[in-house]
């Protein structure tokens, strides 16, 4: 069983068991977004509970 390399680049497992992901909407078309929105998108977020099983299936050894 192999790890999906795209998932390995996008997700990190925290010590608490939750999965960390980057915020979306921060790659392009940033001129129409104000500074507050871009600043809030800078941080990370947790993967939603309904998606945790899918991410774990893509990364069986993490």
Automatic annotation (TrEMBL):
GO CC field: cytosolic large ribosomal subunit
Domain of life, source organism: Bacteria
Keyword Cell wall biogenesis/degradation: no
Ribonucleoprotein found in the keyword field: yes
Keywords, sorted A to Z: Ribonucleoprotein, Ribosomal protein
Gene3D superfamilies: 4.10.410.60
Molecular function via GO: structural constituent of ribosome
Pfam families on file: Ribosomal_L35p (PF01632)
GO biological process assignments: translation
Family according to the record: Belongs to the bacterial ribosomal protein bL35 family.
HAMAP family the UniProt entry points to: Ribosomal_bL35
Protein name: Large ribosomal subunit protein bL35
Organism ancestry: Bacteria, Pseudomonadati, Pseudomonadota, Betaproteobacteria, Candidatus Kinetoplastidibacterium
